[in-house]
Amino acid sequence: MFEVVDDENKPKTQPKQFETHKSSISSKLQGKVKVKQKSQNVSLEGDKIELQKGEYIKLLGITSINRTPLFYSNLKYVYLLELTNNLDFIATSILGGELDKMLLLSVETNEEGKCQFLVKNDLIYIVYGVFPDKKGKWILEQMNKHFSELIKNRNVDKLSKLEKHQVVTKFEGIIRFILEEYLQLQDVFSDQDIPYVEDKLRIDYLGLSSRSIGVISLLLGDELNIEMQQEFDSPEELNEMKESLLTAKIEAIAANTLGNTGAMPRWIAVKLGFQNYRFLTFQKLDNDYFLSFLSEGNLEKLEIVETQLDSLIAPVTKNKFSGDLRPFNVLKVQFIKKFSETREFS
Description:
Strand content: 25-35%
Radius of gyration: 27 Å
Largest sheet: 12 strands, antiparallel
CATH architecture of the largest domain: 2-Layer Sandwich
Shape: globular
Order of helices and strands: HEEEHEEEHHEEHEEEHHE
Number of strands: 12
CATH class of the largest domain: Alpha Beta
Number of helices: 7
Number of domains: 2
Low-confidence stretches: 1-37
């Protein structure tokens, strides 16, 4: 800061003395102009990158839709690149949208962590940590902008080891720059998320599992795009095979995520259009059971559905799964009756 002050040793020939002013430039501009704060150095070392307001980032990553890992800021969480590719496959095929977000819950501490994604030009950008949606989106857009300029339309799936090393080295410096800018823009960002357009949630699939073993699979409606590679003798057999396929893919995601992260997805969001989402959700129950839904609409209505089903599920899940499916077959009939009345909750 600069101050205008008297100099006691000024030459006597000076025709005029000035009054002493102890006010600084920043104090004069206070309330009129925001003075930009000095940049903070950001380190990519350690378990997580600490930001401000309790926010942090554990991983910044890039993978191609062809499963080529291109960049990761933290080796400890590199497995999230492969998981992202698996999620992207389900998002674009069965769920018919674009991978958007995932909320993880630690099994031991119940701590939340969020993955946010951006799919652009056959690349998937990932940010994992704790931060508001709008800030995560800004980071992803900056990553896309700078990485696109860096690769200059090269085929990222065929980069040589030297080329890949050069890209990673340069991009690490860019990541530091992006995060330093992020810290400078704290007061600009709004932490308020955009509200959902829908005011209800529609359930398209329900699954109940124990330790990755599906004990109930129930496909509701025909909104999901599930393509089968063979012909079936009856609609009932076709529906049963679709349920089996969905269950296998959902349980694989849950097991893969839990095994690598020690956390279960609470929900995975796929974007269908502006503020229009389809969700894969998981609820942890007693005795190692998990309830999963595929749904569309307003995620805030999810707890309404889970609460209404609790009285039906609790008697069956009060004991660990023994291999006897008879109680679950009875429960499935109850579910069918329940959802024949309505699949929409508000």
